[in-house]
Amino acid sequence: MAEYVGRGLHGQIVETVGTRIVQGRLRVGETLDMAALIDELGISQTVLREAVKVLTAKGLVDARQKRGTFVRPREHWNLLDADVIRWQFAADAPELVLRDLAEVRLVIEPAAARLAAERRTEDDLAVLETALARMGETSGDPTGAAEADLAWHRALLRATHNELLQRMDVFIGPALAERDRLVHSAEADDPVPAHEPVLRAVRNADPAAAEQAMRALLARADADLARTAAPSRARPEAEADDDRTGRDGGHATRPKDREAP
After folding, report:
1. Burial annotation 140-161 (CB, 10 A radius, 16+ → b, else e)
2. What digits encode the pLDDT tens for the residues 18-41?
3. What is the tally of helices (H) and strands (E) in the chain?
4. Residue 101: pLDDT above 90?
5. Quick one: how far is CA 8 from the chain centroid?
6. Could you say which of 63, 75, 83, 92 would form a disulfide bridge with 69 (CB–CB 3.0 to 4.6 Å)?
7. Long-range interactions of 186-190: CB distance < 8 A, separation 24+
């Protein structure tokens, strides 16, 4: 599903309620007080009903007769949804998404680089080169740098000429964009030297070198993130996993020592 941010009043309500759910302010199993939301947000029942339809499609809520609309367990959430990914970055523990992103990229992108080296066309190379050149022009512009980086990785997936791999940007795209904003806003190292060897191997039609260069790029990306991540976000992995599953049976999605407002 496409992002709803900025899509008028419906989008604002989706954003407000969705963020509360992902942050744990509306807990798993909790029934939404529709009348209270209408009063608090100053909206009509129709507007709230349309927003709830969007949240239902994202897997965050469901409705039952005599129970009303309630928050679904995390395992039912559409974690590939662009808004859900973004809301997790805005929550207390974005490291959960970052860890998953790093693991998914390590599974997919080296293989994608290998295929791109075997199948790329001249048009593919031109798009990759344009995106790489753009990276070098965005120093001091975190938003521009993140957009150029994302364009490059999407172009690499397209160069595989595998339609299913191309659609992996549904997850990689939004999460990588948020991750890049964190890294580039902290003035991480120039990304061009890490990406150029991948492009060179793809240009030379060298699958093994392309895969190896991509693994090196991902290792450097992990190092950049570790160096630039705020200390306040660093928590033991076991504790982060507890936040994800909830130590009280899945009813929490954020640290226990923080009370919902």
Report:
1. eebeebbbbbbbbbbbbbbbbe
2. 999 999 999 999 999 999 999 999
3. 12, 2
4. no
5. 23
6. 63
7. 186/227, 186/228, 187/228, 188/224, 188/227, 188/228, 189/220, 189/224, 190/136, 190/139
Q: How many CB atoms lie within 10 A of CB 90?
A: 12
**HSE-CB for 254 with a 13 A CA cutoff:** 23
Q: Are 88 and 96 in contact (CB under 8 A)?
A: yes
| Segment 113-168, tens digit of pLDDT | 999 999 999 999 999 999 999 988 887 787 888 889 899 999 999 999 999 999 88
Which residue is associated with the tokens 């965005």? 138
The residue ranges of DSSP E strands in the chain, in sequence order, are: 61-64, 68-71
The token pair at 259 is 């009370």
Angle at 84 (CA atoms; ends 80, 86), nearest 5 degrees: 105
pLDDT at 154: 94
Q: State the number of CA atoms in the 13 A half-sphere of 15 facing the CB.
A: 12
